[in-house]
Design a protein that fits this description.
By secondary structure, the chain is of the alpha+beta class. It has one domain: Jelly Rolls, CATH 2.60.120. The protein has 2 helices and 8 strands; from the N terminus they run ααββββββββ. The strands form 2 sheets. Strands 1-8-3-6 form a 4-stranded antiparallel beta sheet, with helices on one face. The chain is globular, with a radius of gyration of 20 Å.
């Protein structure tokens, strides 16, 4: 090959482009305070006829949303829970349907009762993916905030709303 730089330059540019992108990677975290709340909520919701479908601990950065995508079935009764770091001052969750229409918005402040926990029920009108976007604001720690998300589904047939 007389011109090896013709191969070297595109490879170098491709490598630089790949490493320059900011990629969100979900990383788990551990917080004993949050884990106690998780255990309590699992017990409460299971007694109310809900089954835990998905759960994850997530490392978050202050003021940045962490998208969580879940498939939901039409007419099923779901319970979503987000638990934020107890040192944060603001907690918000927005949920969007497949058409990117906001279907849920909740906000809590640090001083609220159970301020670091946002929980809401939702019954989808269509079977499709939905995106939940939790965010927390913390002035003391900008990075490595612990968060926890859970998705429950009502399994008790007596309270099923699938006929709606």
């Amino acid at each position: 090959m007389k011109k090896p730089y013709l191969i070297f330059i595109p490879v170098l540019l491709f490598t630089a482009a790949a490493f320059s992108q900011n990629v969100i990677r979900v990383q788990s975290c551990s917080n004993d305070y949050i884990l106690k709340e998780v255990d309590s909520l699992k017990t409460i919701y299971s007694k109310d006829g809900f089954m835990l479908l998905k759960e994850a601990s997530i490392t978050m950065e202050s003021e940045y949303e962490m998208p969580v995508i879940v498939p939901l079935n039409k007419g099923s009764w779901y319970q979503f829970v987000f638990i934020g770091d107890h040192t944060s001052k603001l907690y918000e969750v927005r949920m969007y349907d497949w058409d990117e229409k906001q279907v849920v918005y909740q906000k809590k402040m640090w001083g609220d009762v159970d301020g670091n926990i946002i929980s809401y029920s939702y019954i989808p009108r269509f079977s499709e993916f939905h995106m939940m976007k939790p965010v927390q604001v913390n002035k003391e720690k900008k990075k490595n905030l612990c968060g926890y998300v859970m998705l429950f589904k009502k399994i008790n047939d007596d309270n099923s709303l699938s006929g709606r």
